[in-house]
Amino acid sequence: MSDNTNSKGSNSLKIAIVVGIVVIVALLGVIIFLLVGKDKAEEPEKRNVVVTQDNVDDVVEEMTMADYVEPGYYDTQMSTTWTFATGSDVSEDAYVANDVSNTNDVYFDVVMADDESNVIYKSPVLPRGSEIKTIALDTPLDAGTYDCVCIYHLIDEEQKTVSTLRIGITIVVNQ
Prior knowledge:
Blueprint: H1 2-41, H2 56-65, E1 76-78, E2 81-84, E3 96-98, E4 105-112, E5 115-122, E6 130-132, E7 144-155, E8 161-173
Parallel strand pairs: 2-8
Antiparallel strand pairs: 1-3, 3-6, 4-5, 4-7, 7-8
């Protein structure tokens, strides 16, 4: 009778050890799954950033750290506040240049920041080394201050867009 009790006790001990090991392995699997899934869920969608005078250094630093380098190289030379006596006059201080050191010709569109479907100026193509100072809006604006976005299109020889660059500008119409 004592042999029968001993064998039942050793079987129960073996079952308890096996169940304990299975529970520990299952817990480790759940923990690993949660940790791996957490890394993927925390990675937000990367969006383009409008470049302003305040954040240009941060954006440039981020671009230099990025693995992927956009085709072309571009150095912007422009005024970020454009003043017009009236909405249909030529600007007093608007200036955009395509530096000779750039790798592509460009053109740019100016849109309202709150309504990008509203294009208020379309530039001609600016070859490398050229500039434009006589800017009159294609769509006259009423007196006021407007937040706008200048969207540069770096283009190839066939005028197909290679890359784009967005810069925030302010348009002031006095009368």
